[in-house]
Amino acid sequence: xxxxxxxxxxxxxxxxxxxxxxxxxxxxxxxxxxxxxxxxxxxxxxxxxxxxxxxxxxxxxxxxxxxxxxxxxxxxxxxxxxxxxxxxxxxxxxxxxxxxxxxxxxxxxxxxxxxxxxxxxxxxxxxxxxxxxxxxxxxxxxxxxxxxxxxxxxxxxxxxxxxxxxxxxxxxxxxxxxxxxxxxxxxxxxxxxxxxxxxxxxxxxxxxxxxxxxxxxxxxxxxxxxxxxxxxxxxxxxxxxxxxxxxxxxxxxxxxxxxxxxxxxxxxxxxxxxxxxxxxxxxxxxxxxxxxxxxx
Length: 296
Hints:
Elements: E1 3-5, E2 12-14, E3 16-19, H1 26-38, E4 43-45, H2 54-63, E5 71-76, E6 78-80, E7 87-89, H3 93-107, E8 112-117, H4 126-138, E9 142-148, H5 152-161, E10 166-170, H6 182-188, E11 192-196, H7 217-231, H8 236-245, E12 250-256, H9 260-267, H10 277-284
Parallel strand pairs: 3-4, 3-12, 4-5, 5-8, 8-9, 9-10, 10-11, 11-12
Antiparallel strand pairs: 1-2, 6-7
Helix pairs in contact: 1-2, 2-3, 3-4, 7-8
């Protein structure tokens, strides 16, 4: 497994990260996570939103005895309502300072390696949000902070006003919107990209074609076939991941894992394989680039 430094931080994370949102029953989840670590994955991403905090609790229990081997990332900003019927967006400083204590408790750790704002809008009290993260960093409760957002206008504000080390965003051969401006901006700013959705909900890794974002089923099938042609001795998942990881702005591709077979697929290349210029061009020419229509 290859590793890269995340932005301006001193965190060295695996080129493939483990997205914990889709984890199921704890016994199987524990087996998958430990096998992922054995396969070289050291970055695990969760959020306080997932399963009303129970996901953080499970991840904390599973990683408790391997804490020094891994980098744990979680997210904040979505506050569950008291009746448990949905959640509300809350990027206020007061809430973030309170929420981090619960995440620390659930994760059974005294410090979160990467604390991310789980969304964001231009209407947020952005400076107040940044103050909260900066204070937590000063207090030693978090090592670094970042945001999880696909909105170019929000990303630009945090690049300009904060010390984020990372942005998590959706990026794949089917969703090339970040290529328009965000990836170059973040690379030039020394901020690492954590790419989620690299497999396009499995559509690039063997799942039957269906529409995806602004792509129709025919376009999705064409992209999947192009990935399959290049797979050769590896897997479709590996080629789809390579496309994302080939961009110099991307530090790690975060993949949700539910089964052992999925884990084997994403580990098939160990985040080490490269695509040549001609292969990248073949994939790019498969579909025209798409672009963000909102939040520009």
